[in-house]
DNA sequence: CCCCTATCCTGAGGGC
DNA sequence: TGCCCTCAGGATAGGG
């Protein structure tokens, strides 16, 4: 499941390879991955367009095209965006192939199809309501002053549900929500309202910390995540709680508890986290 | 307004 | 060996 560190790994890897390149050919294999008006316009606008920027907002990848439109890609659960030499075999569930002017292909693949592709200027996409409202960026230097900690203290939802809400904080998913709660020593089941100022501040510090750590290890690869060249990350080997229900807490040794919060599997240490 | 649940989708893994 | 069942979860629609 690509979250912020995984998406940022892809963006940083692809950027120097894509900037300045032109999309020579567009192959839209499964047009239902497009969530914008019509496939014909899509192909017309993307074909021949030059990439002038590669960025990220939350879990959305933005390929900025000359003239203003953004090709926006969300990877959902199982999406990958990889650069390949044309003759390399194409995996099943490859929904979109963009041929570059240097003989390589940018391939968008997503077996579970929770991802999507958008195209439009930022203004157009906003008017269409195609992009959700996104909260502050955990890696931004201003994150500490973004009001994130305060917004946690205003909700009656469980912490876990608030952390997964992209309007509260951009880019957090199931892995790093659990990891941040562990580092901040707060139970993900706690209602936001019940947090002390100190606990909310600890979460505000923990989230950028766990994400920077994961980014340094090029993301967590369980089943699906691959970087822009098909390689796995190593961050999953350094996780404290995610995927470790029933195993001993790395801090105190007690058995980690696994439960469901906000419809998601949630793992925490009932001794370290209060 | 806010919160919660069901839904989309495929592949992996367990049980028999 | 193969079949069936369950489970994984990001975002969103719709109900309470």
List keywords for this structure.
single chain; Helicase, Ruva Protein, domain 3; 274 residues; globular; alpha+beta; 7 helices
Textual characterization of the structure:
The chain is α+β, with helices and mostly antiparallel strands and 274 residues long. The protein has helices spanning 4-18, 39-46, 122-128, 148-152, 159-164, 174-184, 197-216, and strands at residues 23-28, 51-57, 60-65, 70-74, 80-85, 94-100, 104-109, 116-120, 257-261, 264-268. It is built from 7 helices and 10 strands. The strands form 3 sheets. A 4-stranded antiparallel beta sheet has the order 1-6-7-5, with helices on one face. The radius of gyration is 20 Å and the shape is globular. It binds a DNA duplex (16 and 16 nucleotides) through residues 1, 3, 59, 74-78, 93, 110-116, 132, 155-157, 161, 164, 166, 173-174, 222-224, 262-265.
Q: Which regions contain 5 or more consecutive residues with pLDDT less than 50?
A: none
Strand order within the widest sheet?
Answer: 1-6-7-5
H/E topology pattern: HEHEEEEEEEHHHHHEE
The first-to-last residue Cα distance is: 27 Å
CATH topology name of the largest domain: Helicase, Ruva Protein, domain 3
Mean pLDDT: 93
Total separate domains:
2
Q: Figure out the total of helices.
A: 7
Topology:
Layout: H1 4-18, E1 23-28, H2 39-46, E2 51-57, E3 60-65, E4 70-74, E5 80-85, E6 94-100, E7 104-109, E8 116-120, H3 122-128, H4 148-152, H5 159-164, H6 174-184, H7 197-216, E9 257-261, E10 264-268
Antiparallel strand pairs: 1-6, 2-3, 3-4, 4-8, 5-7, 6-7, 9-10
Helix pairs in contact: 1-7, 6-7
This protein binds a DNA duplex (16 and 16 nucleotides) through residues 1, 3, 59, 74-78, 93, 110-116, 132, 155-157, 161, 164, 166, 173-174, 222-224, 262-265.
